[in-house]
Amino acid sequence: QPPGDTAQLIGSQLEDARLLGQRTAELHLALMSWPDEPGFEPDPFTPYYQRSLFQSMRNLTEAVFTRLDANRGTLRGEARQMAESLLTDRERMLHGVRSRLADPIAAARTRLHGHYHLGQVLWTGRDFVILDFEGNPAVPLSARRIKRSPLYDVAGMVLSLHSAAHVGLLARTEGDEALARRLRPWAHEWFLWNASTFVGSWLRTAGAAIFLPEERHARDALLTVHLLEKAVHELGHELLHRPDWAWLPMLGLRYLLDAGAPA
């Protein structure tokens, strides 16, 4: 639970985050409620799948970081500094992903949303409505059909909350760097407690679902891998389509690495 002053400043948005976590878990439980329906039956994690997950992450990282290296000369200020530090940490990040996928994971892979973020939910004033189940249109359909851990969706929403905090900060402080420096810790607090509330609510609602590993370290490992994967993917998207916004996923990646995500 956040400290009293922090909870008061964030206000009712913490309850919104709790409800969003509950609805997200209910979605994942619904998507595994037809185990005999072709295409919806759960699949186990296997050593082959875990190796392919790491290989996919390595290929993605190589492609995106090669583009980042080619574009860093066009970046300015903090964005360029972040790019250089991320390029230095590439191998450390991949080592962390490999180590987290080395041990067997006792859980099921199921259907999920696949492209989950704040833009995929509508707030009615009382509840959330989840929409757009086509998956990520930038990913081939064959890859979108592969069953994954629902923690992939959880990671997408956590990173979306991180982006919301820092885009909101930019909108209120653009051109006033002194104000931005003063408010940046509060933007981080807003993200941290909303994300924690969302994840905690999702875990409580999911309970003992077969898609959740019983061991906490395995849950943490999967969530961390998917956070890194989503952040790298978003960095590649921004470098290709909106280079001026590459700082945002780089900031998320830098936070993950500094928080000790890699081993």
Describe this structure in words.
With 263 residues, the protein is mainly alpha-helical. It has helices at residues 4-10, 13-31, 47-71, 77-88, 90-100, 141-144, 151-173, 177-206, 216-241, 247-258, and strands at 43-44, 108-109, 121-123, 128-130. The strands form two sheets. Strands 1-2 form a two-stranded antiparallel sheet. Strands 3-4 form a two-stranded antiparallel sheet. Strand 3 (121-123) and strand 4 form a beta hairpin. The protein is globular. The chain starts with a helix and ends in a 5-residue tail after the last helix. The relative contact order is 0.19.
- Give the spatial strand order of the biggest sheet: 1-2
Write the H/E string, N to C.
HHEHHHEEEHHHHH
N-to-C CA distance: 27 Å
Mean pLDDT across the residues is: 93
Could you tell me the radius of gyration in angstroms? 18 Å
What's the story with the biggest beta sheet? 2 strands, antiparallel
* Beta fraction: under 5%
Principal-axes shape call: globular
Low-confidence stretches: none
Task: Please give a handful of descriptors for the protein shown.
263 residues; mainly alpha; two-stranded antiparallel ribbon; two-stranded antiparallel sheet; 10 helices; 64% helix; 4% strand
Quick description:
With 263 residues, the protein is mainly alpha-helical. It contains ten helices and four strands; from the N terminus they run ααβαααβββααααα.
Helix-strand blueprint:
Elements: H1 4-10, H2 13-31, E1 43-44, H3 47-71, H4 77-88, H5 90-100, E2 108-109, E3 121-123, E4 128-130, H6 141-144, H7 151-173, H8 177-206, H9 216-241, H10 247-258
